[in-house]
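Structure (tokenized):
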């Protein structure tokens, strides 16, 4: 798909937590949010003046109550995807294998630990589909 010309960028940062069995944590967007019911990688919008790694740490804390150390966030891939509202999504995806705490959904979202091969069985957000394929092929 060709990105639209001159679309404002939306910078979102996301993270695939990976457990010792190689499973990836995905979360289901709760009711009330855009794309409710779709599965995604934990993360969110990068705020003004924030850098992406800090946004990931903040969002993992807010959404799941886990504390990754920033240096455990490994850049893995990115999504570049036109959005329905005319903006263009740019989303770095990090992977992280070490964090403090147990993931506990703080926003009523469902979570699942999924083998990379099985990610395609979930209704992922469209921008995440190529990322899931990369996780399957490269993890
Ligand atoms: N967190 C996250 N957002 C994603 C992913 N894939 C993807 O297209 N997005 C899009 O990126 C945007 C992130 O917004 P968000 O609503 O999660 O961010 P946020 O928590 O900061 O939102 P808020 O405005 O409700 O506080 C949404 O448009 C969402 O659809 C993903 O894997 N994880």
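Design, position by position:
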């Amino acid at each position: 798909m060709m990105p639209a010309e001159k679309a404002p960028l939306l910078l979102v940062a996301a993270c695939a937590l990976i457990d010792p069995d190689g499973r990836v944590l995905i979360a289901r967007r709760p009711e009330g949010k855009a794309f409710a019911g779709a599965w995604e990688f934990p993360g969110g919008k990068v705020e003004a003046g924030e850098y992406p790694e800090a946004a990931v740490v903040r969002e993992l804390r807010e959404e799941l109550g886990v504390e990754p150390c920033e240096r455990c966030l490994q850049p893995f891939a990115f999504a570049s995807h036109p959005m329905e509202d005319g903006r263009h999504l740019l989303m770095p995806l990090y992977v992280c294998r070490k964090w403090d705490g147990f993931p506990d959904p703080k926003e009523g979202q469902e979570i699942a630990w999924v083998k990379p091969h099985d990610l395609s069985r979930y209704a992922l957000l469209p921008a995440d589909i190529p990322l899931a394929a990369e996780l399957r092929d490269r993890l």
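Reviewer-requested clarification: The radius of gyration is 14 Å. The first strand starts at residue 9 and ends at 17.
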